[in-house]
Structures
1.
Amino acid sequence: MKRDWLGKVVAPAAVGVVVLALWQWLVTALEVPVYLVPSPLLVAQTLVDDRVLLLGSLWVTLKVTFAAFVIAVLGGTAMAFVFVQSRWVERSLFPYAVLLQVTPIVAIAPLIIIWVDNAGVALTLCAAIVAIFPVISNTTLGLRSVSPGLADLFRMNKATRWQTLARLRIPSALPYFFGGLRISSGLSLIGAVVAEFVAGTGGTGAGLAYQILVSGFQLNVPRLFAALFLITLTGVVLFVLMVWLSRLALGDWHESELTIEP
Amino acid sequence: MAVDTPATDALQGAVGPAVVDVRGVEKRFANGTQALAPVDLAVRPGEFVTLLGPSGCGKSTLLRAIAGLTQPSAGALRWWGGDAGHVGEPGRKLVFVFQDATLMPWTRVRANVRLPLDLAGVPRDEADARVDASLALVGLAKFDRHYPRELSGGMQMRTSIARALVTEPDLLLLDEPFGALDEITRNKLDADLLELWWRKRFTVMFVTHSIYEAVFLSTRVVVMSARPGRVFREIVIDAPHPRTEAFRVTQEFAAYAKLLSECLMEASTEGAPSRNAGAPNGTAGAPQGNDGAPDGTAGASSRGVAAMAGKPGASA
């Protein structure tokens, strides 16, 4: 147990500290100009100094990310349930889900921004389109991945369609579903940032992507790094949250969550 | 053997329709493979019938057809004299035990065993009481809070049997249930299953490719041959019940094992050419003094109770 904690937290943290220290030392020693690579301490200082601006932007990006994620999860799951109703439905609709997936969001974002008045809604829609596909494909696969023996057992016990769904298909799908969530949560954030790059928000509704753009134009590289840091941090937190959720749901039984004895 | 009652005595009084009546059942898969040539077979109440044969002889297919899991391409199946629509009614309950335990990994042993009752809408209190009783029967009373993955293969199989017994079935169909287990565990489970059968008096159809398992368990062994799968011969194991581990080391046991082994050999060398259903009738290796159990015309012989009275010469 103690070793486990050591391996999971202390080791990566140590690597982080070493890298940051090296970075700080190199930047100072080589006298790298601030507008090229700022030192970690300066980035931290900027983070504190510009906190009102940056946290405000973080909040905007978070709102878009979460809204998009929720839409992707609900919409994707609903679509997966439609798909598994019959092979016919899946064959007819799945190509369009793929179409949605393969079209680069940067290419359709301008269209969506033209069609949708509200910038926030437009961004959310773009991010949701990016994030929805893993949920659809994983959940569909999961709902279909029912052990044939268990399916026979349910059939022999004259289980209703609803009983089979609730007691067999949904539990069988959960590991796949959570796999989809992990990918989708990251994509929601990426979608939110990319869409904002394309759309541009500005003013009070500016997200982190906008701050990066503007900082880039102004050569305010420390702020750019600070914004980048916040995006990365959000991504990591989202991932950890998904891992935790998955463990909560599957920890007791699924192979993926079992700790292997040394 | 404490009670020296021949199995046949227990069955002699059995009247009424056969538990399962298989008439001319054939199975041809979509790719043209004929899994089952026309098969005739009848199983009477209280029998422990084993389908024995090499892999590919259609024994699992036949069992799945009886369970209603696969539709025969031709022929007719009757359960307790009625059609499939009446299966599941009181006195006509049928359960199927799969090759592997087929447990839901996401729920504990208790919920797994309770599943058939939950699906049937049995109230929770009553269901839980029946689950307790069923788990006690298979010796897993203390493991109801475990997840399937925390159990050994043998215990998982016991859970599967407990789930089958919880509905108080009249006919138990087992498809090579202990095939994946080690021999020691398998022998133990065989003995426990046989004891349950003796106590509960349900009818059992059991698929295996183990000669020793077939001799130890069965009141009657149906030897099947492959390509296409068909009934080759039926052999009554006329050893008294209840049988214990001691039965395995008797001369009688060895004689039956030899008989079945010869029978399987014959079935495999005979091959496909003989299309005549009655071909094995009276061939060498058929036990003497048998009133027709090994008669190739399986349908007729198995319906005659007299067939059970025969004692193979090999065991004399």
Note: Chain B has two domains: 5-93+170-315, 101-168.
2.
Amino acid sequence: MYPDSVRTTRETPGSQTSLREANRARIVAAVQQHGSLTQVELSGITGLSPATISNIVKELTGTGVLSTAPSTRSGRRAQLVTLARSLGLVAGVDFGSRTMRVVLADASMRLLASEQMPLAPDHRADMGMQRASMLIQEMTDSVEAGVGELLAVGIGVPAPVDTARGVVSSAGLLRGWDGADVAANLSAQLGVPVSVDNDANLGALAEARYGAAVGYDPVVYVRASHGIGGGIVLGGRLLHGRAGSAGEIGHVTIDENGPICRCGNRGCLETFVGSPVLLGMLAASHGHLTLGDVVTRAQDGDAGCRRVLSDAGAHLGAAVANLCNLVDPEVVVVGGQLAAAGDIILAPLRSAVEQRTVPSAEGPPVVVPSEFGEWAEARGALAVALDRARSDGALGVSA
Amino acid sequence: MTAAITLAGVSKSFGAAQALVDVDLEVNTHEVLAVVGDNGAGKSTLAGLLSGVHTPDRGQVRIDGEPVHLTSPAAARREGIAAVFQELALCDNLDVVENLFLGHEAAAGIFLDEVSMERQAWELLDQLAARVPSVRVPVAALSGGQRRTIAIARALLGDPRVIVLDEPTTALGIRQTAQVLTLVERLRERGHAVVLISHSITDVQAVADRIAVLRLGHLIGEFDAETTTTEDLLGAITGAVAPRAGGRAS
């Protein structure tokens, strides 16, 4: 008999039909990744002629995949193209060290519901995943969506993830989650495909596609919260590396003789700017604080908290500069809870980056705060969920 | 950090049953103190003592170091202590604004000042990031979590320093639990002292700074929530493990 590859029903490559099918997929992919685009922008991004775009958009609007709305761009009338809302819903979950955030959106990336829930320190994976799936189900109910309207779910976890299998690939980084088979577990509970990635990677994707880094490439994203994470977007795609540890800036060595880190090495960036260290420095003078307290007090002018944050900014800057020398990004986006402190942390970070990067005629990379703040990772989770829905063929075109 | 309330050697019996025996506890501002324990450990009695429902048989309740006699919930409120109990004591047929201001309505001349009450209600709910569809719907139409939020908002009206929450997450769905726990974090950020009484270890560990464990009326120990494992807490609650020497924080 024929091997599998021959028996597929796909059109012969090179035929008119297959070309048209590929163009359709290309347009849907572009609209999905950018959220909304005018027809002129679509033509620029896909490289298809305006006439082809117009024809295919008309056809896909007719079949209920895309929807168009009148809009203006630079003073001219334009047709804004988005995915049709009726296509279905996607959910994104961001497991932080102490907080879980869940967002629900329709296929046009309009947010329908969001919820956050505090988590215990060192919470267990099974408990977290159960709570996440219950939250998703209640939120889907609350927008009066029926069973089966949920297309896919994206999950962010604060540890390196083997994205092909959806399994936490680190050992010892996130107690209670080592080796957790997140994708299989949650897709069994929810009955939809689940994509899993590192949280900072998702934040990077969200900022690169919809946020502060739109139009820049490469993009480096640094997430400074309880732990420190990082993500790199190259040519519009996330850099994962071999087993998902790419961009783990929190475990870059700052001081070879420094303290032992939770990862087992010495003097990692996290042993200088992780929240236990920052809060520990303030314990004697300020008592028990949370990271949020430190940021608020620093903004209110508390000298001790300002000092702790500006030192953290300088340490972060040193590590980010090393990353910049390797990747040479156009923009560095700083997210996470510490980014809320604004220039208290960003100013020392910028000057450390300027000092330590290779001088370039282009000047040092731009350092900006995250646009989505603490919700960047959850937004990124939505983005990978929608990617997953498209690649599974749920958006009306084959991938 | 300052102690808002101190319980010094407090005991309380109901007939032959000793509900609390010689309990020393400090409640600090800008902190969530969780009180956990098995059924009959004395959690609700402790909430009652703090909020003026019960008076101690022995020992002292001190506010800012001064001994006080909390003889009624109203007396406790005057001292800046508000409590939300499992039974929320809301009037189902009244709307959100009416419930919030019941008993201390704002007046404009001989009429009620509905406009300012409604504005204050929204301000308060916004500060708590509470989600209520409208402040003019009867409370009966709200979900369990929203009703609990209204009850907590009402407790906040006199700007108390200490808020006692007795089992705030029992009988709530997961989404409402998430909202109530987020609200507890918000109260702490606003600088209130929060006493969270619960038997859900997961919920307690998620938001508490300090965890006090009661067992059969005795205070077994105080634990730092950041560094204490679930196993240690369960051991202390059930009495399976004697608290470690270092278990008593601060």
Note: Residues 16-83 of chain A form a domain with the Arc Repressor Mutant, subunit A fold (CATH 1.10.10.10).
